[in-house]
Amino acid sequence: MKAQEYTVVGTRPIRHDGADKVTGRALYGADFQMAGMLYGYILRSPHAHARIRRIDTSKAEQFPGVKAVVTADDFPEVADRMVDLGEGDTPLSYARGNVLAKGKALYKGHALAAVAATSVHVAEEAAGLIEVDYEVLPCVLTAPEAMRNNAPIVHDDLTTKEFGEQTGRVSNVAEHFRYAMGDIEAGFARADVIVEREFHTATVHQGYIEPHNATALWNNDGRILVWCSTQGSFVVRDVTACLLDVPVSRVRVTPMEIGGGFGGKIPVYLEPVAALLSKKTGKPVKIVMSRKDVFEGSGPTPGSYIKVKIGARKDGRITAAQGYLAYEAGAYPGAMVAPGAMCIFAAYDISNVVIDGFDVVLNKPSTAAYRAPGATNAAFAAESVVDEIAEKLGMDPLDFRLKNAAKEGTRRADGPKYRRVGCVEVIEAMKDHPHYSAPLGGPHRGRGVAIGFWFNVGMPSSCTISVSADGTVNLVEGSTDIGGTRTSIAMQAAEVLGITAEAVRPTVVDTDSVGFTAVTGGSRTTFATGWAAYEAAQDVLRQMKERAAKIWEAEAASVVVERGVFRSGDKSMTFQELAGRLDQTGGPVVGRGAVNPRGVGGSFSGCIADVEVDPETGKVTILRFTSVQDAGKAIHPSYVEGQMQGGSVQGIGWALNEEYYMSDAGSMMNSSLLDYRMPTALDLPMIDTAIVEVPNPGHPFGARGVGEANIIPPPGAIANAIYRAAGVRMNRLPMNPPAIMQAIWSQRD
Amino acid sequence: MTLPKVYIPTLLRTLTGGRASVEVEGTTVRQVIDNLDRTWPGVRDRLLENGKLRPNISVAVDGEVTPIGLIETVGPASEVHFIAAIKGGVPAPNPHQRL
Predict the structure, then answer these.
(1) What is the ipTM score, two decimals?
(2) Residue A399: is its pLDDT beyond 90?
(3) pLDDT at A582 over 90
(4) Chain A environment of B7 (Cβ under 8 Å)
(5) Given this structure, which CATH class describes domain A304-456+601-748?
C-alpha cells in the first residue's frame, strides 16, 4: 500500500482501552480475586552476600493463619542442566536461584522463602519467624572492583567465556567479547585530535508504577493457572513450566493490564513461588511486591564502567574509536553489555573500531532490560567524547555528527551494514528545529545535543481476526499492551480491511487462546504484532472475496477490494454489507496471521537539551527539551510522541537524579519513591517532539518501532549542556548536585 | 565463482590464522560453518554446542540477525556475521524455535 493512500495509519484515533483506564475499571494483577484465595509474602535476605547454612520454617508453619511455607527445596528435584528461557541458555540452578535462593544469598533482597496465609499481614508476621542461619561473606558492588583478582567471588562455579571458548578461569567476569574492524592503531595515528575519557554510571531502576504481582492456582487437574503483570505471557508460561519441571501445556498465563514495564517485567520472580504455595495449599495464592521489594528484589538496569577513546582529523572526520564496557550483571550473568557495545558507536561511520565488552557478576539484584538496554550508558560516554572533540575542532556539534553520520551501507562495528536508516535525517531535523537556534536567555545556561541508535527486533507474533455480522471485527492478540499497542495493531488491520480503527476490537488474551507471541519489548510490538494483524486482515480479505464471488456467481479472481468496498464488474458491496451475509454464504470468517518477521528497521533518535546550573548548589533545571526520532512510518503519531516524551523523561531522570545509593555492606539506602528521585511533571517543561519519517522498507507500512531509542541520548545531551552552562565535563551518572559541585570545586582546585 | 563471505569474530581469528574474513561454500548457515571447520578446525566447536548455535552467539546474514539460525539460506553474494547474542531481558528467539 502506498503511504499517501492510508486512511487509518497515520491518524490519531482514541485508544480502545482508554475508557476502562480512565474510569478505573481496567483490571490489574493486584485487583485479581478468587474464592478462597490466600496471600503470599516473600522473606528476603538482609545481607548482600551470605552463605545460607540452614532455613528453619517450623515456627512460621505453626503460626495461626499460615497455610504453607516454601523454600528452594520445594522445587522438584532434578539434576542441574542448561535451560533456555528465551534469553539464552542458563543453568537451571541460576534460573531457580533468582526466584528462591539456594546455598547463597547473592544480594540484599534475594528471595529466600515464601509464606501463604489468610492475609498478607499474617504472612508477613509469620515470615519474620523463619530462622535463617547465615555466614555473612564480603560483598562486591561495582564492576571494576568485581574484576580485580582478589575480589570476592560471587559464583564458585562461574568461569569466563570468550566467544564460545571456556577459559576455565573462575572469576566474576562471565563473558568477554570483542568487536573489531579496520586498523585501530593506524586510525589513531591519522588523528589530529584524540580524546580519551572514563565514565561511571549508577544502577538505575525502570521505575514502573505498578509493582510485580502474580496469582497462581495449581488446579486439581494438574494445570497451573497464572494471572500476572508481565511484558510476555508466553515467557511466564515457559519459565514457570521449566522451573517447576512440568510441560508448557500444563501452564496457562493470563496477562492482566500492566502498569509499566520498560523491560523490567520480562523476568519472572513471583509466579513459580505462588504456584508452589498453591500446590501445597490447594488454594489460589496471590503475591504482590512492595515498592521496597521491587527495588531490592527485581531487576534494575546495570551500572557500568566505560572507557571511550575517539580520534578525528582537523577536517572533522573520525578516524578511530575504541570502547571498553564493563557492565554490572548483578547476581547472575546477563548484563546488557552486548547491545551497549553494538550501539556505542552505531551512529557514526567509522572505519577503525575496537570494542571490548565484559559481563560482570556482583552482589546487586540480577539486572533486567530497561528501554534500549545497555545503550544509554554507552551513549552517555560516547556522546560526551564526541562533543569534546567537536569543541576541540571548533565545529558545531551537530555539523560534526552530520559529517560522520551513519547511513545506508555503513558497516557497524559488530559487522552488519545498515539498510535504509534515518540518522542523517534525524540530525538535520535537530539542526532545523527552532529550538537549536533559540537564544538561551540568561547566565549559567547551556545547550547540549546527543544522538543514539537502537536496532529494534522482530520475533514471533500471532493474531486472529473474526468478522462480526455488523461489519466490525474482533482482533485477538498476545502482546500485552504497555504503550497503546492495542490501537497501533488494530489500526494496521483496519487499514487493510478498509474499516475504521474503532470498528476493530482488540483483545489481549491468555496463552491458551492465541499462537505464540514473544514479549512486548525490543520496540517490536507495533512492528511485528502489527505485521501479524496485517497478515490476518489479508487472510480475512481473501476469504471475503470468495464470499462476494459466491454471491455474485463470479470468479473469486475477478473480485477486487479497495478501501473496504468489494467489486466485480459493475457489482459492489461494502465490507459491512458483506459481513452481514457471511452466515448464508458458508459461515464465519476468521483470519489468521503468524509471523517471525525480517525487515527490522533500526531507529535513530536525538535530543536538544537546555539547562541552567545553579553555581551555588549544583542543581540542574531543564529549561527546554526537544526529542527527535525516526519512527519509520508513525502508525499512531500521538503514541509515537508519547513514547518519545516518556523515554526522554526517563533519560532525564537517569541523567540527573536516579541511582541505587548503596551502603558499603550492599544495602540500597533509598528503596522508596520518596528517596529514589524520579522526575515528575513539576520538575520538567513540556517535552517537545519532532517525528522524522524515513519508512522502513522491510515493513508493510514502513514502521520501525519507537519505544526505546528516545531514552538513549538524554544523559549525553544534558552532560554536554551542563558543560556549556558550568564549564565542567561530567563523567558520572547521576549528575546530581553533589556530583556537579564536586566537579566545579575540583576544577577550581 | 562468487562465494558467501564470512566475517570471523575477533576472538576466533586465532583459529583462522588472523583472517578477518574468508569466502566459504555453503547454501545454509550450517553448511557454511561445516565448511569453515574443514578449513579451520575448531571453529564449529566455538560456534555450536550440541548442534545448536551457542546461546551467546547470533548469526546475521546480509545485515540482519536471522530468526531461524543454522537453517537460514545463504546466497553466493551473502555476508555472514557471528555476533554476540543479546541477553539480559532483551527478547531472544523463542527457545522452542532456536536452531
Answers:
(1) 0.85
(2) yes
(3) yes
(4) 415
(5) alpha beta
Minimal Cα–Cα distance from B1 to chain A, Å? 23
By CB atoms closer than 10 A (0-12, 13-18, 19+), residue A642 is middle
Distance, in Å, from the CA atom of A742 to the CA atom of A723, rounded to the nearest integer, reads: 14
Min Cα–Cα distance to chain B from A358, Å = 11
The residue type found at A287 is I
Q: Tell me which residue of A633, A636, A637, A609 sits closest to A623, measured CA to CA.
A: A609
> Which chain B residues are Cβ-neighbours of A532 within 8 angstroms?
none
Cell of A401: 555528527
Residue pair B82/B59 in contact by the 8 Å Cβ criterion: yes
Percent of chain A scored above 70 by pLDDT?
Answer: 99
Give the C-alpha distances (Å, rounded to integers) separating A350 from A328, A354, B31: 27, 11, 32
State pLDDT tens for residues B51-99.
Answer: 888 877 889 999 888 888 899 999 999 999 998 776 543 444 333 333 3
Q: Pick B88's closest partner by Cβ from A89, A373, A524.
A: A373
Q: Which of A82, A89, A355 to mutate to test the interface with B (most CBs of B within 10 A)?
A: A89
Looking at residue B95, its pLDDT comes to 36
Quickly name the fold that domain A3-26+458-595 has.
Aldehyde Oxidoreductase; domain 4 (3.30.365)
Which member of B49, B68, B81 has the closest CB to residue A416? B81
User: Using CA atoms, how far apart are residues A467 and A496, in angstroms rounded to an integer?
Assistant: 14
Contact of A451 with A605, CB cutoff 8 Å: yes
Query: Is the Cβ of B18 closer than 8 Å to some Cβ of chain A?
Result: no
Of A161, A163, A263, the CB nearest to B12: A163
Q: How far apart are CA B11 and CA B45, in angstroms?
A: 13
Q: Is residue A175 flagged as an active site residue?
A: no
Under the banding of pLDDT at 50, 70 and 90, the label for residue A88 is low
| pLDDT beyond 60 at B6 | yes
Residues facing residue A54 across a β-bridge: A133
The length of chain B is 99
- B5-84 carries CATH number 3.10.20.30: yes
Q: How many Å lie between the alpha carbon of A457 and the closest alpha carbon of chain B? A: 8
Taking the C-alpha atoms of residue A33 and residue B68, their distance in angstroms, rounded to an integer, is 41
Q: What are the chain B neighbours of A176 within 8 Å (beta carbons)?
A: 11
Nearest to B56 among A88, A181, A267 (CB): A88
Q: Is the pLDDT of residue A129 over 50?
A: yes
> In chain B, which residue's Cα lies nearest the Cα of A302?
B88
Range A74-102 average pLDDT: 83
Per-domain residue ranges of chain A: 3-26+458-595, 32-137+210-259+265-297, 304-456+601-748
Taking only the tens place, the pLDDT of each residue in A189-243 is 999 999 999 999 999 999 999 999 999 999 999 999 999 999 999 999 999 999 9
| Nearest of A632, A631, A633, A656 to residue A644 by alpha carbon | A631
| φ, ψ of residue A615 in degrees (nearest 5) | -70, -15
Q: Which of B22, B40, B47, B56 to mutate to test the interface with A (most CBs of A within 10 A)?
A: B56
Judging contacts by C-beta atoms under 8 Å, the chain B residues touching residue A521 are: 89-91
Q: Which residue, A259, A268, A162, A271, is CA-closest to A214?
A: A271
Say what the pLDDT of residue B91 is: 41
How do the domains of chain B map onto residue ranges? 5-84
Contact flag A516-B94 (C-beta cutoff 8 Å)? yes
Please check whether residue A202 is in contact with residue A659, taking contact to mean a CB–CB distance below 8 angstroms. Answer: yes
Q: Which residues 6+ apart lie within 8 Å of B81 measured at CB?
A: A414, A415, A416, B7, B59, B60
For domain A32-137+210-259+265-297, the CATH class is alpha beta
Q: A3-26+458-595 with A304-456+601-748: one CATH topology?
A: yes
What's chain A's length in residues?
Answer: 749
Is the predicted pLDDT of residue A106 greater than 70, yes or no? yes
Q: Please tell me the pTM assigned to this model.
A: 0.95
